[in-house]
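FAQ
Q: What does a multi-component entry look like?
A: The components come first, one per line:
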Amino acid sequence: QEPLVESGGGVVQPGRSLRLSCADSGLFFASYDLHWVRQAPGKGLEWVAFISSDGATKTYADSVRGRFTISRDNSQKTMFLQMDSLKPVDTAIYYCAKDFKVWGAAAGALESWGQGTLVTVSS
Amino acid sequence: DVVLTQTPLSSPVTLGQAAAISCRSNQALEHTDLNTYLSWLHQRPGQPPRVLIYKVSHRVSGVPARITASGTGTYFTLNIAKVEAEDVGVYYCMHETEVPRTYIFGQGIRLEIK
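Then the predicted structure of the entire assembly, as tokens:
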């Protein structure tokens, strides 16, 4: 599986917004559930959000619910993360990843992680 | 809420020796479909994570046979039979919760070479 490619990171002031993108060069983007996972500097992994293959189901970590919105455009093979009301604690590398499948069935794991995009929230 | 706590069973390790990492949950992880969605990931310095193991004990294609995993209920382990230099990095266990569908990571354990 080819890795996904994240973009859109940068430095932003607290309270402002940022929109991340995750692009896929593969053929079957529309068949995959997708995720955002973040990693604060020097810290561990934190799952952020999930979106089903058709975009109908979305779930969020408690730490971002109500501030972040996950979406996707299957025609463009791209997923997005709209981040509003950003806080310094949101500073992290943001990775996108695919749901790992075995014989077409979800296996409860994440694959095809991108290299990540760094978001820094600071005044 | 599910909490995953990881502990090293042996760290640091000498090249060629065995290493083990445990992942303990505060509640049973089995879903109503009788599967346990517990996976293991490896993150080398400066790299994104890579999945090694899914559903407790199934190796992903390309993962060497010296890496095995097992467990049930609330206790899971990742074993590396003969540690090689490429094994350095941080190992995470991860669980997919059933409803709603969310994901929990352990805090990660760094594998160091003596």
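Q: Is there any commentary attached?
A: Sometimes. For this entry: Strands of chain B lie at 4-8, 19-25, 38-43, 50-54, 58-59, 67-72, 75-80, 89-96, 103-105, 109-111.
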